[in-house]
Design goal:
4-alpha-hydroxytetrahydrobiopterin dehydratase activity; PCD_sf; Pterin_deHydtase; Putative pterin-4-alpha-carbinolamine dehydratase; binds 7,8-dihydrobiopterin
Length: about 100
Amino acid sequence: MTEKLSDTGRETVLAPLLANGWEMTEGRDAIKKTFKFEDFTEAFSWMTRAAMWAEKWDHHPEWFNVYNTVEVTLSTHDVGGLSSLDAKLARKFDAL
Ligand code: HBI
Protein backbone atom coordinates (compact mmCIF):
# COMPACT_ATOMS: atom_id res chain seq x y z
CA MET A 1 0.00 0.00 0.00
CA THR A 2 1.41 3.38 -1.01
CA GLU A 3 2.20 5.56 1.99
CA LYS A 4 1.26 9.22 2.19
CA LEU A 5 4.38 11.43 2.47
CA SER A 6 5.05 11.87 6.18
CA ASP A 7 5.60 15.30 7.69
CA THR A 8 9.28 14.58 8.25
CA GLY A 9 10.05 12.97 4.89
CA ARG A 10 7.93 15.49 3.02
CA GLU A 11 10.40 18.38 3.23
CA THR A 12 13.34 16.29 2.05
CA VAL A 13 11.41 14.74 -0.80
CA LEU A 14 9.67 17.88 -2.01
CA ALA A 15 12.47 20.47 -1.65
CA PRO A 16 14.32 19.56 -4.87
CA LEU A 17 11.06 19.49 -6.82
CA LEU A 18 9.90 22.84 -5.48
CA ALA A 19 13.30 24.21 -6.46
CA ASN A 20 12.75 22.92 -9.99
CA GLY A 21 9.47 24.57 -10.92
CA TRP A 22 6.98 22.42 -9.03
CA GLU A 23 4.69 24.13 -6.58
CA MET A 24 2.11 23.08 -4.00
CA THR A 25 -1.47 23.33 -5.26
CA GLU A 26 -4.05 25.44 -3.42
CA GLY A 27 -6.57 23.56 -1.33
CA ARG A 28 -5.28 20.05 -1.83
CA ASP A 29 -2.22 17.99 -1.05
CA ALA A 30 -0.74 17.89 -4.57
CA ILE A 31 2.06 19.39 -6.63
CA LYS A 32 1.77 21.05 -10.03
CA LYS A 33 4.06 22.28 -12.76
CA THR A 34 3.56 23.85 -16.18
CA PHE A 35 5.80 22.51 -18.94
CA LYS A 36 6.30 24.62 -22.05
CA PHE A 37 7.48 23.24 -25.36
CA GLU A 38 8.39 24.55 -28.82
CA ASP A 39 5.06 23.57 -30.33
CA PHE A 40 2.18 21.13 -30.05
CA THR A 41 4.11 18.26 -31.57
CA GLU A 42 6.87 18.61 -28.96
CA ALA A 43 4.31 18.87 -26.17
CA PHE A 44 2.38 15.82 -27.30
CA SER A 45 5.55 13.84 -27.88
CA TRP A 46 6.58 14.58 -24.30
CA MET A 47 3.12 13.58 -23.07
CA THR A 48 3.44 10.29 -24.92
CA ARG A 49 6.78 9.52 -23.27
CA ALA A 50 5.42 10.64 -19.91
CA ALA A 51 2.35 8.47 -20.36
CA MET A 52 4.50 5.36 -20.88
CA TRP A 53 6.14 5.92 -17.46
CA ALA A 54 2.81 6.63 -15.81
CA GLU A 55 1.45 3.37 -17.16
CA LYS A 56 4.61 1.42 -16.27
CA TRP A 57 4.39 2.63 -12.67
CA ASP A 58 0.57 2.57 -12.55
CA HIS A 59 0.59 6.16 -11.34
CA HIS A 60 -1.11 8.70 -13.56
CA PRO A 61 -0.97 12.49 -13.80
CA GLU A 62 -3.85 14.91 -13.95
CA TRP A 63 -2.84 17.02 -16.92
CA PHE A 64 -4.17 19.67 -19.29
CA ASN A 65 -2.62 20.47 -22.66
CA VAL A 66 -3.15 23.56 -24.78
CA TYR A 67 -0.89 23.79 -27.85
CA ASN A 68 2.72 23.88 -26.49
CA THR A 69 1.83 23.89 -22.79
CA VAL A 70 1.18 20.95 -20.46
CA GLU A 71 -0.09 21.66 -16.94
CA VAL A 72 0.62 18.66 -14.71
CA THR A 73 -0.81 17.96 -11.26
CA LEU A 74 0.34 14.97 -9.24
CA SER A 75 -1.36 13.46 -6.24
CA THR A 76 -2.19 9.95 -5.07
CA HIS A 77 -5.91 9.34 -5.07
CA ASP A 78 -5.51 6.16 -3.05
CA VAL A 79 -4.07 8.06 -0.07
CA GLY A 80 -5.81 11.39 -0.65
CA GLY A 81 -2.59 13.33 -0.98
CA LEU A 82 1.08 13.23 -1.90
CA SER A 83 2.97 9.96 -1.83
CA SER A 84 6.46 8.91 -2.85
CA LEU A 85 5.01 7.89 -6.21
CA ASP A 86 4.20 11.52 -6.97
CA ALA A 87 7.78 12.57 -6.24
CA LYS A 88 9.11 9.68 -8.31
CA LEU A 89 6.90 10.57 -11.28
CA ALA A 90 7.73 14.28 -10.95
CA ARG A 91 11.45 13.51 -11.08
CA LYS A 92 10.91 11.37 -14.15
CA PHE A 93 8.82 14.07 -15.86
CA ASP A 94 11.57 16.61 -15.20
CA ALA A 95 14.11 14.29 -16.79
CA LEU A 96 12.16 13.51 -19.97
N1 HBI B 1 -2.64 7.45 -10.24
N2 HBI B 1 -2.11 9.57 -9.52
C1 HBI B 1 -2.64 8.36 -9.28
N3 HBI B 1 -3.13 8.12 -8.07
C2 HBI B 1 -3.66 6.91 -7.76
O1 HBI B 1 -4.11 6.70 -6.64
C3 HBI B 1 -3.68 5.92 -8.74
C4 HBI B 1 -3.16 6.23 -10.01
N4 HBI B 1 -3.18 5.33 -10.97
C5 HBI B 1 -3.77 4.03 -10.82
C6 HBI B 1 -4.23 3.76 -9.47
N5 HBI B 1 -4.19 4.67 -8.49
C7 HBI B 1 -4.75 2.37 -9.27
O2 HBI B 1 -3.90 1.69 -8.40
C8 HBI B 1 -6.17 2.35 -8.71
O3 HBI B 1 -6.14 2.78 -7.39
C9 HBI B 1 -7.07 3.18 -9.53
